[in-house]
Amino acid sequence: MNDISVLTGGRAGDGINSAGLLIAHLFNQMGYQTYMYFDYPSLIKGGHNFTITRAADKKIGAHRERCDYLLALSQDSIDLHRDLITDDTVILFDSGRVHGDGQGIAVGEILKAEQAPAVMGNSCLIGAFARAAGIPFDVVETVIRRQIPKEREKNLVIARKGYDSVSEKRSIPRAGDTCCPLLNGNELIGLGLLHGGLDAYVAYPMTPTSNLLHFLAGVAGSFPLTVIHPENEIAVMLMALGFSFAGKKTAVGTSGGGFCLMTEGFSLAGSSEVPVVVVMGQRTGPSTGLPTYTGQTDLRFVLHAGQGEFPRLVVAPGSPEQAYVWSSVALSLAWKCQVPAVILVDKTLCEGTYSFDDTAMTVPDTGDEPAPSPEAGQYRRYAITENGISPMQFPPMKDAAIKVNSYAHDEAGITTEKADMVLLMTEKRQRKAQALKYETDSLECVKTYGTSGARTALLCWGSTLLVCKEVAERHGFRVVQPIVFSPFPEEQLREAVAGIRNLIAVEENAEGQLRLLCHQHGIPVGSHIAKLDGRPFSVEELDARLREVS
Prior knowledge:
The protein is of the alpha/beta class and 550 residues long. It is built from 18 helices and 20 strands. It folds into three domains: 3-164, Pyruvate-ferredoxin oxidoreductase, PFOR, domain III (Pyruvate-ferredoxin Oxidoreductase, domain 3), CATH 3.40.920.10; 182-360, Rossmann fold, CATH 3.40.50; 446-549, Rossmann fold (3-Layer(aba) Sandwich), CATH 3.40.50.920.
């Protein structure tokens, strides 16, 4: 298959993420499936940023340990990536900043002649890349006009000068017509929440979900949507509960450190039966850890966060399409069953950019949510029911005294310490947990891929899905991916691993959190392949690690 990787590197402030995205859009115009990985330190300026934009003529979602083209706006972009450079790598660099083998482009002189800011240097280098790769300039023009909102004409002039400054090195063939839309995981989570009926989004910016806040704020004018940025994560959760208590479908976004501050409010959601959805983007911990890098270390945390016992929904999508589908499902089920929910994602999925195929997915119908009870003067928000789910009632209500707090309460929300009522409410929550499990059992909570009848399978969750699928295909293995973790889909998982003799867990944590969860439910898992440095698996790395244990 055609498989091309382009590394674009520079300093924070050089617009490296934007440059990588423009290259992804060039490939998109050429008919390729695309994935872009963005690596950056926790710095506003300086340091070394780089993107790896990979294009192929089939669905991909992982990077490779080689680059066919390297675009360098800083010396580090060459020096730190020599392990990715081969004899066939085409190197293009800003000759005013970088020294080395390859083709230098006088980026500084071009910018000076056009009286352009330094950040436009990436347009110059992208133009040079297009010529070196045999991409017609009309494709560059189309992409720049669509993707650059300001000073398009100046960017086009600079890109053209970069284009004319080099000769064609290796032609990239056209793969077909313009491919799918390019979206990052945060955008797809946001769109999925909107599909599920999101009314309000409340968040304090925290990598890797910060861009979800920015995205939803940017589209709020086109939807009946309220977006608020409070002063801290405690305020975020309490404000979200207020929205939900008043009848607004609400979600919040955070990472591990922010969710730590939200857990008391999360427990309040469980006690007061107020539905709220938490988008929990994992990154490397513990504590602040590596704030701009990835990890899968918070699974057990979200499964048990908060004091006391109460039902919760936890889903962990692993692809762009799943991010859309399960964000919608999580919001719908949280409201149908009146429970808090967590969408557990990570930096790789949140900030990765993918070709998104909306024809390859279906959002399942989760049925109707409980209708609000209009009965005046009868506030029984916690009425005892057969399935534990009470009729919805929202303030204000005519002639009704409304009471809600964090204490044990009766059917009207009035604080009580009576043993019989505490027992009834505990049993009510347990029945609601069973109702939630009934809902998830009707969904495909565990996905399988790959060779039917294979005796070896990779067990994965979250963003490791796509690299596992690619590597498993090479070996003729199966892939088993749980998506729902609470309620745990034990029966579906047992069916998915039936006949597998060698089940290998692939996780970005040290303890094997999914592996331990499977063992807890009596499902044996053999080897555990861990990734612990904050970076996602590359295709070659997982392939090599797999050969060691299979």
